Amino acid sequence: MKTEETIKQAFDPYFKVPLKAWKSFADLGEVITTTKDSIIKNTNTTEKYLSFILKGSGGILLWNNNNFVCIDLCYEGDFFGDYMSFLDQRPTPLEVITFEPSEIFRIPRVNFEKLSFNTEFGDKICRFAAEGLFIHKQEQQIALLIKTASDRYVELLAKQPNIILRTPQKYIASYLGITPQSLSRIRKELANNH
Questions:
Q1: Do 94 and 174 belong together in one domain?
Q2: 166: Cβ–Cβ under 8 A, 6 or more apart, which residues?
Q3: Residue 75: Cβ-neighbour burial (10 angstroms; 0-12, 13-18, 19+)
């Protein structure tokens, strides 16, 4: 499947624009292939690209108290990167890393800005990308406050049934706000209930 078709498929549930609009978007970027544990953006640097995972997985990590805390897990069809840094072009303490070999579409900031001015659907694509990322973060924050770690893990499993094979358990636990031991306990309880 071509890059623009993959991106269109990921966005169609949220908003529909013609394939030619996604072709214009794809033409402004590039597809890179990474290995497992590739650092896409280092801590205390500025995000240069808006990235989107075509194949693979990764995480957004925050260096805190001599340890990385996972603040987001990303898979096929997800934006991938330090969006705050991308928008304001300032360094942040976030690191962006792949968890498995991945194919990532990325568009440099200067081309992303061109997109919003120079194409028929560019402004709409930029706006919906921003809205989608904002909604994702808000949903994540609300879930963290009102749902148990076990409930959030069940939701993760529903979206990514092979998450344990694709994502280091320490990052799944960190993302859920629990210890790896607590994650093991939740997994055992779920296995016993089925």
A1: no
A2: 57, 75, 99, 100, 160
A3: buried
Q: Mind listing the pLDDT tens digit for each residue in 57-99?
A: 999 999 888 889 999 999 998 889 998 899 899 999 999 999 9
Domain count, the chain: 2
Helix axes 122-146, 19-27, angle to 10 degrees: 90
User: Residue 143 forms beta bridges with which residues?
Assistant: none
CB 38 within 8 A of CB 102: yes
Q: Give the predicted TM-score (pTM) of the model.
A: 0.86
Instruction: Answer yes or no: do 138 and 168 share one domain.
Output: no
Q: By C-alpha distance, which of 28, 70, 76 is closest to 49?
A: 28
* Predicted local distance difference test score (pLDDT) of residue 119: 61
3-state secondary structure of 57: strand
pLDDT, tens only, 151-166: 999 999 999 999 999 9
Sign of CA dihedral 60, 64, 66, 70: negative
- The neighbouring-strand residues paired with 172 are none
Residue 45 DSSP code: B
Q: What is the DSSP string of 88-157?
A: H---BSEEEEESS-EEEEEEEHHHHHHHHHHSTTHHHHHHHHHHHHHHHHHHHHHHHHHS-HHHHHHHHH
